[in-house]
Amino acid sequence: FDKISFVKLFEPYNWFIGYGEYYDDIEQNIKKEAIDRLNLIRYGKNGYIWTHSTKHVLLQQPYRESTIGKDDSNLEDKKGTKIIQMFVKKALENENGNFVEYYWNKPNEIELRKKIGYVKHIKDWDWVIGTGVYIEDIKLSIEKLSQTKQNEINTTISTSIFLSIIILISASLLSYFISKKVNES
Predict the structure, then answer these.
(1) Is-contact 106 134, C-beta < 8 A?
(2) pTM, to two decimals
């Protein structure tokens, strides 16, 4: 096995002191650290990351800890799609990753919801890492953004109308006073 070592001469006693570690052990430690960190990643209200091997074994998923290390080959969504097989296939099709659609329940909920996911194959470790977003969450975000933008538009229109009225009144008064001065002369 490949190994990396560090050796140093301890001159007072003419000793060589060394330490070594196998690359495989280093890589396994890095993989474990990566999985631990992936388990901590959350985004939005329900966003998380999951990881499978290309052999469909669940390596990491924060809401399915009891099934880590199990074969998910036959895991199906509401429509009967073997989703892990689909994830692996789609991830392997494109080295830049791929989008997938499937049905899954939100964390701590029972009802299944439609999701759009993104899967990517990590070639060196033969992992498929994925994440997804619920369609209804996208719709809610769009509605919220739309409402915010509509409020901004309404505020801009109201401000513009108010300023236009002020300018119109000011111009009318100025015109009135100028014409009065002209008529007096």
Answers:
(1) yes
(2) 0.67
